[in-house]
Amino acid sequence: QVQLVESGGGLVQAGGSLILACAASGLSIRTYHMGWFHQAPGKEREFVAHIARTGLITYYGDSVKGRFTVSKDDAKNTVYLQMNNLKPEDTAVYYCAATNLFSSRRSADYISWGQGTQVSVSS
Fold first, then answer.
1. pLDDT tens across 16-66, in order?
2. Nearest Cα to 105, choosing from 37, 22, 54?
3. 3-class SS of residue 10
4. Is 122 within 8 Å of 12 (Cβ atoms)?
5. Which uninterrupted H or E stretch holds 37?
6. Hey, is 9 helix, strand or coil?
7. How confident is the model at residue 15 (pLDDT cuts 50, 70, 90)?
8. Contact, 4 vs 97, CB < 8 A?
9. DSSP 38-93
10. Are 52 and 35 in contact, with CB atoms under 8 Å apart?
11. How far apart are alpha carbons 86 and 57 in whole angstroms?
C-alpha cells in the first residue's frame, strides 16, 4: 500500500522559514519523480516544485522560485521542501505526490498523494 505522509507545517510569521517532509512507503522515491503542490481555500491546486528521481534536476513554480528548495534523501525515502522568506500568500495546504512523468507540473499526472500539511503565514 502506497503512503505519502507530509509533516512540518505550522504557523510562521512573514519572512520566516519552514521545512516540510514527505515520508514515502510502499513506493521508492528512487523510481518516481516527486512533486509538491499547494492549495489555498477556494483556489485550485497549484504546482510548487518537482524533483527528478535522480535528484539531479529540479523545477519550481514562478511564485516560489528563489525562496523554496526541494531535495530528497533516498536512504530515508523522504522528500523535503525548504521554504524561506515565507509570505502570507504562501498560506495553503501543501501536498506531496509521485509521478512517472519527468518534469510534470500538472496535478493530473501525479498518481499518489499525501493527506497534506497546513502552512499558515501571518503578516
1. 999 999 999 999 999 999 999 999 999 999 999 999 999 999 999 999 999
2. 37
3. strand
4. yes
5. strand 33-39
6. coil
7. very high
8. yes
9. EE-TTS--EEEEEE-TTSS-EEE-TTTTTTEEEEEEGGGTEEEEEE-S--GGG-EE
10. no
11. 23
The three grid cell numbers given for residue 67, joined into one nine-digit string: 525562496
Quote the cell numbers at residue 85: 522568506
Rounded to 10 degrees, the C-alpha dihedral 59/63/66/68 comes to: -70
- Which residue carries 534536476 as its cell? 57
User: What are the CA-CA distances from residue 27 to residues 33, 42, 115 (Å)?
Assistant: 11, 31, 16
Query: Any idea what DSSP says for residue 14?
Result: T
Give the residue-averaged pLDDT of 66-86.
Answer: 98
Q: Are 49 and 34 a contacting pair, CB within 8 Å?
A: no
